[in-house]
Write a structure and sequence with these properties.
Blueprint (H helix, E strand, L loop, with lengths): L17 E7 L2 E7 L6 H7 L17 E6 L2 E3 L7 H5 L2 E3 L3 E3 L3 E5 L5
Parallel strand pairs: 1-7
Antiparallel strand pairs: 1-2, 3-5, 3-7, 4-6
Length: 110
């Protein structure tokens, strides 16, 4: 029979489950995230990450987080400086995991 187990780099990164680790105020939450089912920002807020109400358009910057492991692609990051982008800062309303494991760090009480 055919082998349907594709190596990870062939998978569409936007539709495979991603294991998210999010850190805020010394608390760490971990959960499997399904990009096809919900926005990352909603998944994080449902699980207790505090994010001030956000524009969801990549403009206000309230949902910024720093990627400490893994990679995420971001559609629009109008409110981020070049420096922030280089440091791995992403806007969660725009971020799509590009790796099967993504670690995010949030500032206290954003």
């Amino acid at each position: 029979g055919e082998d349907f187990q594709h190596p990870p780099h062939l998978k569409d990164p936007l539709n495979s489950t991603c294991w998210i680790t999010a850190k805020q105020n010394g608390n760490v939450i971990q959960f499997p995230y399904e990009p096809s089912e919900e926005e990352l920002i909603d998944a994080l807020m449902e699980r207790g990450i505090q994010i001030a109400s956000t524009c969801r358009g990549g403009v206000c910057g309230n949902c910024r987080a720093t990627v400490t492991q893994g990679k995420a692609r971001v559609e629009h990051s109008y409110s981020l400086t070049d420096d922030e982008c280089r440091q791995g800062v992403v806007l969660c309303c725009q971020a799509r995991p590009d790796t099967s494991d993504l670690h995010l760090e949030f500032k206290a009480g954003q």
